[in-house]
Design brief:
The complex is a heterodimer. Chain A is an alpha+beta fold. In chain A, about 35% of the residues are buried. Chain B is mainly alpha-helical. Classes of the chains: A alpha+beta, B mainly alpha. At the A-B interface, helix 1, strand 1, strand 2, strand 5 and strand 6 of A face helix 4, strand 1 and helix 5 of B.
Chain lengths: ~160, ~160
Amino acid sequence: MMRIVRLILLLVVLSPCAVNGQTGMHINRVFGGKYISDPSVTEVMMSGDQRFLRSHDLNTLATFRGASATYAPILQPLVLADGAQAIGRNVRYKDGKLQYAFFMLPAIEKDGNKINRYLYYLNVDTGKNPSVMMIYFDGELSRTEAESLIKSLSK
Amino acid sequence: MEKSTGELSRIISLGERYFECSLSDSDESRLRDMLAHTTLEHPAIDELRAMMGFRAPVQIGRMGRRSGMRRIAAGIAAAVALVISLSVYIIRVDNAPTCVAYANGVRVTDEEEVVRLMMADMHYFGHGASSSTESFQTELGDVARMINDYESMYPEI
């Protein structure tokens, strides 16, 4: 009987893992409207069958932006924890703080398709409005396509 | 057939003596054993079992075992149903399209507005990332100049 219970618990725990690339990531802790009461925060979460995502070959797109002083200490460890598993990276520190990071995370398989996952981080702690920002997206796009996408979206 | 008739007659004979209270302890024990193990069905056997307190415990035992098995089967069925329901729910939730933004303390679900907010943030990111890259390149340039200066101080061997 205990074996059955263990099997059931394992199934319940594992079943969501196979579904979404963002599932189980550390950065998820800041999403879901957790900081909605802070007007400096902007959070966007898009997944599934969305026109915008379809047009860019994406499955998921999530962005988070907030005041650098408040959110850099929160985001930096989460991004670095997820980035520890990365298979490609471009990381820059300034004054002992993470300033810019790009991580290509290990791909996952969904419905027989290879889903590549990308994580960006930027902390601009100078200027009028010092902000920290994080972008996560996944889809079938390659690293070059991901970089082009970021460039095209940020123009 | 003859064996069954013989067994039945022995049970009835012992039973009659049981009702007359003339059974020895060993005969009573033998009768109990026969009643417990016989596969024969006869009103006299049922009556004897009832009188000797057999029937109820035997039935309860059978019912208990049956209900125990039923309970385990029902538990497994319920657990399987739960797992299937949870999996379907999780898959549906995870596959369900999400389009939501939080800005200025407000929850936004209109796709156009969500995309507009995202693009604004992306623009900010692009500007910041290119500034960061420029400063990185400047630093790299400085380092390259320093190396050049250092190397020019010493003649090539």
